Amino acid sequence: MKIISVNAGSSSLKFQLLSMPSEETITSGIVERIGDENGIFTIKVEGKKIVKELPIPTHNVAVDLVLAALLDLKILSSFDEIEGVGHRVVQGGELFKDSAVVNDDVIKRIESLSDLAPLHNPANIIGIKAFMKVLPKVPHVVVFDTTFHSSMTDEAFMYATPYSWYQNYGVRKYGFHGTSHQYVSERAAAILKRDDLKVVVCHIGNGASLCAIKNGKSVDTSMGLTPLEGIPMGTRSGNVDPAVIELIKQKEGLTVEEIISALNKKSGYLGVSGISHDSRDIEDAYVEGNKRAELTLAIQTKRIADYIGSYYVYMGGLDALCFTAGIGENSSYLRKMVCERLGVLGVKLDDQINSSVRGKECLISSEDSKVAVYIIPTNEEVMIAREVMRFIK
Ligand code: ADP
Prior knowledge:
It is globular, with a radius of gyration of 21 Å. By secondary structure, the protein is α/β, with parallel strands linked by helices. Strands 5-4-3-2-1-6-8-7 form an eight-stranded mixed sheet, with helices on both faces. Strand 4 and strand 5 (48-56) form a beta hairpin. Helix 1 packs across helix 3, helix 6 (178-192) packs across helix 15 and helix 11 (291-315) crosses helix 13. The chain has helices at residues 59-72, 104-112, 121-134, 154-157, 163-169, 178-192, 243-252, 256-265, 268-273, 279-287, 291-315, 325-330, 332-340, 351-356, 380-392, and strands at residues 2-8, 13-19, 24-32, 36-45, 48-56, 82-89, 100-101, 140-144, 198-204, 208-214, 217-221, 320-324, 362-363, 372-375. The protein binds adenosine-5'-diphosphate. The site of adenosine-5'-diphosphate has 12 residues, from helix 10 and helix 12.
């Protein structure tokens, strides 16, 4: 059975065609710069990347492009081979505690959450509608970034703000990267052959969040109402005192929107280092002795360790610590810097293994470590395809 996983953003559309239930990737790709004269369409076939530059004015054009390529490249002989489509949706709010089969009511409910995710939900809906137009007969399933965290209790998800803000506008922590945290923590449980585990997943990519998972359920996570909360990221600040906004408004004459945008797009690695948002550039500069690059990594790894310490206390211990996503899977520096700060919890890395392994599932802690430390590559597309399968059944 073939299932397509879709992740539609405001100007991009990522897709992956999977064979289920074997979970093999048949092909994957991305359409970038939708709405632009110089759109880019990339598709991977048998390990090779095919890249085309062409105008891609709308998401409908992007979807047509993807589906036509599947036929032209003989990946599919007909669209009838696709038996379901899974759509990543960023914000499910309190309305969605599970994935759902798309219908008019579901679309309306996702639309009603756009205030909470103005950059993401409207783009997700455009992607859903574009695919439904071309594949109207198969089930379309929406899978939310927030659902996995719906098991958090109110003491973990509430902010200490006026209660009416929560009642009237849904001001609370929702958390994101849920499909990734779920996938990785389920892998950890499978590797350790136990369900009664206390796990922390560190999803450290350009966007980054941590999740505390007890007995398979998310009990706390670092991102909040939006993905801005938590640890510093490629371009996001993570937590700051909200009073910073008032001060910068006065000093630089910026609007609140402009300041929030700077906290989202000009902070984190990019803001502190002044070098780049990309961890590889920061690490290169750090190795060359650049002090701001060193500080950038120190701030981030301190904050990651702070969260892990608080999750250790909250869960009453820690069995497994898992690193995933672009930086978590690939950067031995980052993993080492975090784990060195966790020595007091009995975390010990095997330095040799840590520095030689990247991008593949591996135990990287030493034999006498009190906590098992793993690299577990994430796979959000497989998780989405599994959800589609669950609903088809
Ligand atoms: P997102 O999905 O949030 O856009 P990714 O999970 O793809 O982000 O992570 C992107 C980050 O991963 C970038 O900072 C990039 O430098 C980093 N990364 C990717 N490969 C490597 C590598 N080999 N070594 C170090 N960092 C890497």
